Amino acid sequence: MTEIVSVRKSVDYEKSLPVAIDKVLRDLGGIERFVKKGEVVALKPNFIVYSSPSKGIVTHPLFTFEIFKRVIEVGGEPFIIDSPGSGLPFNKHSLKHMYKSTGYWEIFEDYRECLNFDTSSEIVEIENGLLLKKVRVLKKLIDSDVIINLPKMKTHSLTFITGAVKNMFGAVPGIEKTSYHSRFRDIEDFSKSIIDILNTTNPGLSIMDGIISLEGDGPALNGTPRNTGVIIGSKDPFSLDFVLSDIIGLSSNYIPYLKVGLENNVTRGSYEVIGDQVKIPDFKLPRTFHGKSSIEIIYVYNKIVSPVFRKLFVQKPNIIKKKCIRCGVCVRSCPENAITMGKVSASIDYSKCIRCYCCHEQCPEGAIDLKRINL
Ligand code: SF4
Ligand code: SF4
To answer: So what's the ipTM on this one?
Structure first.
């Protein structure tokens, strides 16, 4: 079946957002198609690090609030849930700080009981997955009747973009995410694990916040916010990400998890776009992206000479000593225990580093740069 993808312009999070959200939902058949009266609805934004919504890193609280209101209007019972990035502790204190720093505490002032503080998780068995046999996920998320996936439009140093498919990786609790980088060092395997997690959580609807997006060295503080003024929605997360790749002018062949999805018949890559015509010129990709060579050469060589090839030719994380505040977030987020804390700054043992970029993603000071190499 060909899935509909709705693309609508919205220049801001105030005046134009409610109109644009209404159009997206109408294009997709109305919120009633996805939420029935009395259903418990998990809204899953992207909360990767503590960050102001103006930086384009987290799903904007006004965006989530707009969907939240639509769910209530049809008699659903919505709540907000995500597990932040692996460098942050996953506990009530950390979640409260996340809600405050991202503006959710303020915007949801009258609905704070709908902000999740439950960190319990459970293991779900996976039948016929691409790679995983089981996965530990947030219990409240998986117990909900419906999941509405609310990704942020961003670049990503490892997967080049992070959209609707990858947003559900946040279903894995806290630091457990780092183990996926250790276990699945090959980007193809990592992509398979992301797809298995997506299919396990099975969101009923995905709507992407691309009003302020993040380009450059995303997905966190090393990226650059940009006003892109777009909302993309679909029942199918893959279709949404195919359209995202088209809008930013990046072939889906270069996005590892879309390529893996096509090769394994998880998606057919067929969709119909309705709504506004949107193209975003010169969308800056992360420095880890080298066009054709980023994915094809790495695919081939990873099979043959990995991990040597990856260590030699793929950009390495580099700690900028004068920016480092010795907070230890990178130490916690590193799946290979490759980072230690020195007297002046953290430092990386490159012989252990697998170039997963978790440290780069999680550093709250933007103190971990990527060392440029040319393929
Ligand atoms: S590089 Fe320094 S500032 Fe950044 S996460 Fe590591 S310890 Fe914290
Ligand atoms: S030091 Fe290397 S292995 Fe550790 S988090 Fe950073 S990129 Fe990943």
So the answer is: 0.99
DSSP labels, 177-210: HHHHHHH--SHHHHHHHHHHHHHHH--SEEEEEE
Q: Quick: pLDDT tens for 252-290.
A: 999 999 999 999 999 999 999 999 999 999 999 999 888
Asked whether residue 182 falls in the same domain as residue 47, the answer is: yes
Ligand 1, closest atom to CA 359?
A: 5
* Ligand with smallest separation from the Cα of 49: 1
Cα–Cα distance measured from residue 295 to residue 188, given in angstroms and rounded to the nearest whole number: 10
Identity (one letter) of the amino acid at 56?
A: G
pLDDT in tens, 95-149: 999 999 999 999 999 999 999 999 999 999 999 999 999 999 999 999 999 999 9
Q: What is the distance of C-alpha 321 from the center of its chain?
A: 28
Residue 178 and residue 87: Cα distance in Å, rounded? 9
**Which residue's CA lies nearest to atom 8 of ligand 2?**
356
Rounded Cα distance, 256 and 92, in Å:
34
User: How many A from CA of 321 to the centre of ligand 1?
Assistant: 9
Rg (CA), the chain: 19
Give yes or no: residues 259 and 213 share one domain. Answer: yes
Which residue matches tokens 């809008």?
Answer: 247
Q: Are residues 268 and 329 in the same domain?
A: no
Domain range for 357 is 304-371
